[in-house]
Amino acid sequence: MTGTIDARPVRARHPVAGDRPAHDRSVGELVHDATEQLSLLARQEVALAKEELTVKGRRMGRGGGLLGAAGALAYVGVFALAGTGVAALALVLPVWAAALIVTGVLFALAGLLALTGRAQLRRAGPPTPQQALGSVKADVEELKERAHHR
Q1: DSSP per residue over the chain, as a string?
Q2: In this predicted structure, what is the pLDDT of residue 22?
Q3: Contact 49, 128 (CB under 8 A)
Q4: CA–CA separation, 1 and 20 (whole Å)
Q5: Is the dihedral of CA 22, 28, 146, 36 positive or negative?
Q6: CA gap 51, 5 in Å, rounded
Q7: What is the DSSP letter of 127?
Q8: CA-CA-CA-CA dihedral for 96, 97, 101, 107, to nearest 10
Q9: Which of 9, 28, 120, 132 is the most exposed place for a label (fewest CB within 10 A)?
Q10: What's the pTM?
Q11: Whole-angstrom Cα distance, residue 73 to residue 44?
Q12: CB 107 within 8 Å of CB 135
């Protein structure tokens, strides 16, 4: 595979091109070896994609959990802040006016956050295994190049 690193050693089940030179082997043997090598390459590419998605999934899970905990604490904090704001404004305004002002500010912040979040989601790319896709593309290009040189 081009452009990939795999910690596991790659071992062929059957002896291949290293035993005899290609010109001493039958077309059937060469086709068999090529098929085996392509099958191994495909399995390795799938394994790479799985590993990459597993790592991304773990990171997303941890990140999501931490964001959820932060959101819960912020939610409680917003209530405390709203109460504090109402109490402070109630010193100079009627309580109903102080509560209305604080409520308006909270809704304005919620709208701003919603617009910002929507923009971020639109810019986010699809959760595809970029490294594995790049490796597959490089493998295909290498195979095409070698096929044209023969």
Answers
A1: -TT---SSPP--SS--TTSS-GGGS-HHHHHHHHHHHHHHHHHHHHHHHHHHHHHHHHHHHHHHHHHHHHHHHHHHHHHHHHHHHHHHHTTTS-HHHHHHHHHHHHHHHHHHHHHHHHHHHHHPPP---HHHHHHHHHHHHHHHHHHHT-
A2: 67
A3: no
A4: 23
A5: negative
A6: 12
A7: -
A8: 40
A9: 9
A10: 0.43
A11: 44
A12: no
pLDDT at 150: 63
Tokens of 126: 């699809």
Distances 150 to 1, 39, 68, 146, 147 between C-alpha atoms, Å: 20, 21, 57, 7, 6
Residue in the structure block whose two tokens are 């699809």? 126
| pLDDT number for residue 1 | 46
Residue identified by tokens 């002896």 is: 15
Q: Could you tell me the sign of the dihedral formed by the alpha carbons of 67, 73, 76, 77, in that order? A: negative
What's residue 8's pLDDT? 52
pLDDT in tens, 61-86: 888 899 999 999 999 998 999 999 99
The contacts found for 30-37 with CB under 8 angstroms, 24 or more apart, are 36/12
User: Which structure tokens are listed for 57?
Assistant: 């999934």
